[in-house]
């Protein structure tokens, strides 16, 4: 039996809810006899705690606050090493997705530090303010790999970002992005091994999008092109790094957590 330690970055935001749902997911994997791993879940606030982790969740909250506290507690560099140098499995929800993006739009003045790891540009607060939060039933095809039809996933969007552009992979920093105004880019890091390098250069997969963007633009009188017909991109994966715009930890529905733990388990086994 392998022991897998999953950390949840606990500097700010909805970290406790993630821990609860991760435990629930691990219990259901054990019950269904899908996983025989021994899972440990850990709130992470220090580099020493991060070091113990095989995988990490970056919760929703406020990305500016999370990066500020991370910088002050000397966590930014260890986090970049975790994601970009060692390429360990990492999942960011909402603010966490912003931190994992290589490029982010509309950052507050003074900027904010990104961790990076996903070759995407995100638009922060794409869906408006706190009062414009909403819940949408989502079809998530990646959850239906078993072939059995699944009920839609109740996705909660709170000042949620959207992936507005998939970027081509660069070995270093995203140069073109760094030249845009009002954009912040993540610093580059060298992957430690050939396997990590390969994982870094994997294509970004779009795992889910929210329909309705084309219709919304049409009602606003804006022109629609084929790209926009695909809807707003709200879940992506690039190798070991996974990001969702919404908050699966606020629903009590552990399906995405279970799916991700299975990905983590496979990855840990591959790395052994
Ligand atoms: N828009 C927020 C940010 O910039 C994220 C919101 C959230 O995590 N619910 O950090």
UniProtKB/TrEMBL annotation:
Q: Which domain of life is it from?
A: Eukaryota
Family named by the database record:
Belongs to the glutaminase PdxT/SNO family.
Write down the chemical reaction(s) this protein catalyses: L-glutamine + H2O = L-glutamate + NH4(+)
What HAMAP family does its record include?
PdxT
Entry's EC annotation = 3.5.1.2
* A Pfam family: SNO
What is the name of the protein in this document? glutaminase
Q: Which UniProt keywords apply?
A: Glutamine amidotransferase, Hydrolase, Lyase
Species of provenance: Aspergillus cavernicola
Q: Which PANTHER family match?
A: PYRIDOXAL 5'-PHOSPHATE SYNTHASE SUBUNIT SNO, PYRIDOXAL 5'-PHOSPHATE SYNTHASE SUBUNIT SNO1-RELATED
